[in-house]
Amino acid sequence: MSVDVPPVDEPERRHEALVGVRLTAATPGSHLLEYLRTEPCAVAAWWIAADLDAVVRLSAGSLTVLHRAVADLRRRGGAEVIVTLSILRPLDLSDTTATRLAATA
């Protein structure tokens, strides 16, 4: 006898990256800002004071779409992509994790 088990709804796997960009000499900051407002993978961005001009957080349902979004930052956003950091998983900064680890040590 076989028992049908309904599929478990798993949360959608998101692929995310932080991308450090420098604007090209011919690209005003307003152009990057307008581009990011229309890019569906762009979920957050910050102007920063460093060798870079901005850091952009991208999120996509597949690695292919994420890679395309990074390439489009250069091609359509007028940015030189300096570094791309893939986000693997968040760190748990809650006190409960530290307490649990200390109790098992």
Describe, in plain words, how this protein is organized in 3D:
This protein is α+β, with helices and mostly antiparallel strands and 105 residues long. 31% of the residues lie in helices and 30% in strands. It has 3 helices and 4 strands. A 4-stranded antiparallel sheet has the order 2-3-1-4, with helices on one face. The longest helix has 13 residues.
CATH topology of the domain at 27-87: Alpha-Beta Plaits
The second-level CATH architecture of the domain at 27-87 is: 2-Layer Sandwich
Level of helix content?
25-40%
> What order do the SSEs take from the amino end to the carboxyl end, as H and E?
EHEEHEH
Q: What's the arrangement of strands in the largest beta sheet?
A: 2-3-1-4
Outline type: elongated
Q: Strand portion, in percent?
A: 25-35%
Secondary structure class reads alpha+beta
Q: Could you give a short account of the major beta sheet?
A: 4 strands, antiparallel
User: What is the CA-CA span between the terminal residues?
Assistant: 47 Å
Any idea what the radius of gyration is?
A: 19 Å
Count the helices. How many? 3
CATH class wording of the domain at 27-87: Alpha Beta
Query: Low-confidence parts lasting 5 or more residues at pLDDT below 50?
Result: none
Could you tell me the mean pLDDT?
87
Number of DSSP-assigned strands? 4
Protein name: AsnC family protein
Compile the SSE list and pairings.
Layout: E1 15-23, H1 29-38, E2 42-47, E3 54-60, H2 63-75, E4 79-87, H3 95-104
Antiparallel strand pairs: 1-3, 1-4, 2-3
